[in-house]
Specification:
169 residues, mainly alpha, three-stranded antiparallel beta sheet
Length: 169
């Protein structure tokens, strides 16, 4: 029912006007999309709750990622604009993210890559290989707030009894 109301509200919002024909067509369209989601995609109320819970956590993760990107931009800018070549000390390092779900490992690897000054070279199980522009960039990565947030997200999913197949489906 909540999904149906969400689709109807989305329809009315995107349409921009509320008339009898718009509402009537929106009711039919919302019912059809909801029926499709339930019958074909296997959507359920419990799955909807899990999606909302993980969605909120991912939104908080994205906000944290933006903060990390700004901080990394400033640190990288300092290294680039510095007249001392000694500030540039590239390093390749490996660390265990301790994440078991492949999609969370991919999110972390992409977050590291999108952050200036670091680049994920490879993933082997839960171990990530990262190239850092400077040694100080490498020091904070294993215990970073991003990794800790993803670990907390994984623990919460484990507590909900969700499996990798349920998330990927």
């Amino acid at each position: 029912m909540l999904m149906f109301l969400f689709f109807l509200a989305l329809w009315l919002l995107f349409n921009g006007r509320v008339t009898w024909d718009v509402v009537g067509f929106g009711l039919v369209l919302s019912a059809a999309v909801t029926l499709f989601a339930v019958k074909v995609c296997g959507w359920s109320t419990e799955r909807g709750r899990k999606t909302l819970r993980i969605g909120w956590q991912l939104l908080c993760y994205a906000a944290c990622l933006v903060v990390e990107i700004v901080k990394a931009n400033l640190a990288t800018l300092r290294v680039i604009l510095s007249p001392k070549a000694s500030l540039v000390r590239p390093r390749i390092f490996r660390f265990d993210s301790r994440l078991r779900r492949t999609y969370l490992q991919t999110i972390l690897a992409n977050s590291i890559t999108i952050t200036p000054g670091t680049y994920t070279i490879g993933i082997d199980g839960s171990v990530l290989t990262v190239h850092a522009l400077n040694t100080e960039f490498a020091e904070g990565t294993p215990g970073s707030d991003l990794n800790l947030r993803l670990m907390a997200m994984e623990r919460r999913l484990d507590g909900a009894g969700e499996t990798e197949q349920e998330v990927g489906a």
